[in-house]
Amino acid sequence: MSRGLAQIDQNSELELINASSIQPEPIDWLWPGWLARGKLHILAGAPSTGKTTLTLAMAAIITRGTAWPDGAPTAPGRVVIWSGEDDPADTLTPRLLAAGADTERVHFVGSVHEDNGARTFDPATDVGKLAEALAKLPEPPALLIVDPIVSAVAGDSHKNAETRRALAPLVNLAQLQGCALVGITHFTKGTAGREPLDRVTGSLAFGALARIVLVTARRPDDHPEGPARLLVRAKSNIGIDGGGVQYEIEETELALYPGLCTSLVRWGDPIEGTARSLLISAETLSDDGIETPTSAPEKTRAETWLRDFLSSGPLPSQQVIKEARREGISERTLHRARNALGVESVCTGFGKDRQSKWVMPKGTFSASVPAICQQN
């Protein structure tokens, strides 16, 4: 017997499960393609994108059983929220009310009461207590929100092994309860332009362990496409990734509480593209507010190409981006060229036929076509 085999505990036995004995099961979707019961999801983005308000908007949909932004139906369910950053009284509950939530179906994780008094709940050590509390609900929750998810890691959240071990109890709890687990976190500062999964704060294990990673971005007011926030699927091990939906954060006053102002989400149109391309397109400024430099020759070439490409009239924005990519022009450089030329965006069609088109401003001529020809 080898030295390694000699160290095996003879009092334990490993079980091998034959695949033929396993009954295949479909993914139990809470929001098809976006939120799945029993799975870990990470929602990451810059601080200004309204991640918490966005998550509460999702919670409100679940409590009421109303349609998702893409029209998909859902049944009413309970939501459990732990927040280490926002107060339930002055921040979270007002936002839930503004979103139309049935607050009877929302439960906040409170203090842990012990013989010597009450203490703050710790998601790194008190998951067992949480499991006991959830067992007392009339039915299992449909959604469990942990904000921020890094608080579930007692050790170094930048170490892969420690992060995986720390998240395991929460993931197991979500599986046992059959609820979608959403952990909220930030992007690491100074990572604009990189792959979205690489931008998630902490260990890569956060993105690796999650079955779905959602990311948010914000287009500034002077962005060519206009201001908007984006919710995008950066990763999905159980469905398609890429694509997303636009949303905005608005301030509102609660009708039942005069003078109490809070924020709510207004859902917008669906968007297409990879997570990285959508984020690069939105983030025209670096994390420090300084425009990422593009070499003058690249920008000049992009301006010349774009001017010529749009000389015959408006074209769908996705077609322009696709053709620019074939010419070796990055999306970031293309958008800066667009800003420099003053290219405008117009929307045509309605519903599923709605699309954005780019058009040169009036009176602009192509550099490669004589002006006299364009005036005819």
TrEMBL record:
The lineage of its organism: Bacteria, Pseudomonadati, Pseudomonadota, Gammaproteobacteria, Chromatiales. InterPro entries: AAA+_ATPase, P-loop_NTPase. SUPFAM superfamilies: P-loop containing nucleoside triphosphate hydrolases (SSF52540). SMART domains: AAA. This is AAA+ ATPase domain-containing protein. Residues 37-221 form the AAA+ ATPase domain. It comes from the Bacteria. It holds the Pfam family AAA_25.
